[in-house]
UniProtKB/TrEMBL annotation:
SUPFAM superfamilies: Diaminopimelate epimerase-like
PANTHER family per record: TRANS-3-HYDROXY-L-PROLINE DEHYDRATASE
Protein name (database record): trans-L-3-hydroxyproline dehydratase
EC number: 4.2.1.77
Chain segments carrying region Disordered: 142-161
Source organism (scientific name): Mycena chlorophos
Length: 593
């Protein structure tokens, strides 16, 4: 096979090496790849088994390692590099088919293909895993002395990390100045190629090249050895650090706490919810309020700026993806029990929300033997039985509570009350006094009107908030339904949800959809098996990237109510590490106004 027809890439598509120095070689069959034969002996048994499963003898050649020329890698192989690839600064492998020399000095770029389970199985790999993840996250790869101590933290290892950093750096030089064998920044000539990998250059031109070659900000910066950059310091886990993953569902944010939250007491979720409320509320405030959060922040599960909810549909959708994608058993001990159903392409999860059990289905794809969520498809969940407790109820608004849009002669508002894991009052724009629809209404005026309506219902119609569990007998939110906007697709509704202390849900409100579908069934507008699409102002605005609303389907009628399936899409927005420095008087955040 001609060398030019052979590729040598990681499973993520990154080029690992080159035949004849600059001809890409592609390797598809899955294999473990170890840089040094003697490393095998030092590995734990499980690792040897890996080698037996994928017997690849691989060697490296550089100034310090024994040369060896065969890999057993065949064209069509897929490579999973061991973390110890970090210790390879220059390597020559031999492709079995055409015996072309394969250069893999750039193997560090394969780190994003490392499977976390591999790393997990071999705890000793942790430091390199860390590097891999930092690299993947676009963070600076630490210099000597900045990585956490670990079994691999030897002088050799430190050197290898330093070398790795150089390797990535020079990868770009190599790509740009193929075969030039000199640094274009400072002009240093190189006789041997591996010398290039030892080269560090501070010149602005090289940094500019690096910026140009990477589509993201520089993966590392030039910080003197043994100095920990503040960015890296802030990411280090300490006993007080709270680490989170942020997502959004149709624009509604969810902050998932990954570490740093103390264990909650209580045997049921409602008891744990009380424990969180009474003992750790300062943590919620810290993460939700400014300056670490914002007025509309939601924290999974089921707590938000004002307090703690009993059901949160948009967070359930986000959490479904996250639980499939996390491999941290401290975060999700049952992760390894998850099963990707090859026929349906779904992974099913059961989540306990304060209102009851929620069954979540996450579209998943298999990649390198593990499942990950498919961002291009909707997550769905089956909620707790939902039901209406009042339909077309006329509620008299006392004079002192009336809002300007309510006509003087019209002191009554027609309202529906329904439960979808929490209680919702559902009212039309017209009934509330906004006959031109939600899109032209003032949010401030809607806020005043819904707040007044909510307080009247909460004070005078408590009997409508019927639920066996006392903790759930409260009016969570008011949803105003638009009667003006028309849609190309039938059975589509636009609504706006004011919940908790009048926060506006950016999403179409998953639990609100449960309540609205159950209400439509109770009113005879929807039958079992039928569905509607629900939009918020944000999800309607596809141009803004929100894309889709939530689909609500009446799935089954039970004695307790209708089981509703809600479907929607969630996306990751980032990850963060929150700290509080000594002397920071705003440790637990603040609310303006
Ligand atoms: O989607 C939901 O159900 C949640 N979104 C914010 C308010 C609700 O709890």
């Amino acid at each position: 096979m001609a060398a030019s027809a052979v590729d040598f890439r990681a499973s993520n598509g990154l080029v690992l090496g080159f035949a004849n120095d600059n001809v890409p070689v592609h390797v598809k069959r899955r294999a473990m790849y170890f840089p040094r034969v003697e490393d095998f002996a030092a590995r734990p048994c499980s690792q040897k088994e890996d080698i037996e499963l994928a017997p690849i003898s691989s060697c490296c050649r550089n100034s310090s390692y024994t040369p060896c020329s065969r890999t057993g890698i065949r064209p069509g192989d897929e490579i999973v590099l061991s973390s110890d690839a970090a210790s390879v600064s220059s390597m020559t492998c031999c492709n079995e088919a055409d015996r072309e020399s394969v250069r893999a000095a750039e193997c560090l770029v394969a780190f994003p293909s490392l499977e976390k389970e591999n790393v997990r199985t071999h705890a000793a790999w942790t430091p390199a895993q860390d590097i891999a993840h930092r690299y993947r996250a676009g963070l600076r790869i630490p210099l000597d002395g900045t990585e956490e101590p670990g079994p691999h933290r030897t002088r050799k290892h430190s050197r290898s990390i330093r070398d790795s950093r150089t390797l990535v750096y020079n990868q770009h030089i190599h790509n740009v100045y193929d075969k030039s064998w000199k640094c274009d920044g400072c002009g240093t000539p190189f006789i041997k190629r591996y010398e290039l990998t030892q080269h560090l250059c501070d010149c602005p031109k090289m940094l500019a090249i690096q910026d140009e070659m990477t589509s993201r900000p520089r993966a590392f910066s030039r910080v003197p050895a043994a100095v920990m950059d503040v960015f890296h310091t802030l990411l280090q886990p300490t006993t007080h650090t709270i680490r989170v993953v942020d997502m959004h569902t149709s624009g509604e944010p969810t902050r998932i706490v990954v570490s740093g939250y103390p264990p909650l007491s209580g045997s049921t979720l409602l008891e744990k919810r009380r424990s969180a409320q009474s003992t750790h509320d300062h943590i919620r405030q810290r993460l939700m309020r400014e300056p670490r959060g914002h007025a509309e922040m939601r924290i999974s599960r089921c707590c938000f700026n004002e307090g703690y909810s009993t059901m949160c549909g948009h967070a359930t959708i986000a959490l479904g993806r996250f639980l499939v994608d996390t491999h941290d058993l401290d975060v999700f001990p049952n992760r390894e029990k998850l099963h990707h159903d090859a026929e349906t392409g779904l992974t099913t999860l059961r989540l306990h929300a304060p209102c009851g059990l929620i069954r979540v289905q996450v579209p998943t794809i298999l990649s390198d033997g593990t499942s990950k969520s498919d961002a291009s498809k909707s997550v769905s969940f089956l909620g707790v039985p939902s039901y209406s407790t009042a339909r077309g109820l006329k509620i008299a608004i006392p004079e002192e509570k009336r809002w300007p849009q309510l006509k003087d002669d019209d002191s009554e508002v027609v309202v529906d009350i329904a439960f979808g894991g929490a209680f919702y009052a559902i009212v039309s724009d017209t009934a509330l006094g906004f006959p031109t629809g939600l899109r032209s209404a003032s949010l401030v005026e809607l806020d005043t009107a819904t707040l007044a309506l909510k307080s009247v219902i909460a004070e005078s119609h408590k009997e409508l908030l019927k639920h066996p569990d006392e903790d759930l007998r409260f009016l969570y939110s008011v949803i105003v339904v638009d009667t003006v906007t028309t849609f190309a697709e039938p059975d589509t509704e636009l609504g706006i949800c004011f919940f908790a202390d009048q926060q506006i849900d950016r999403s179409p409100t998953g639990s609100g959809v449960m309540a609205r579908v159950a209400l439509a069934v109770d009113k005879g507008e929807l039958r079992i098996g039928e569905s509607r699409v629900y939009h918020s102002l944000v999800s309607l605005d596809a141009d803004a990237g929100a894309g889709v609303g939530f689909r609500g389907t009446a799935v089954e009628m039970t004695e307790e109510g209708t089981i509703v399936r809600v479907e929607g899409r969630a996306f990751y927005t980032g990850a963060a590490s929150f700290v509080v420095e000594d002397g920071d008087g705003l440790a637990d955040g603040f609310v303006v106004g």
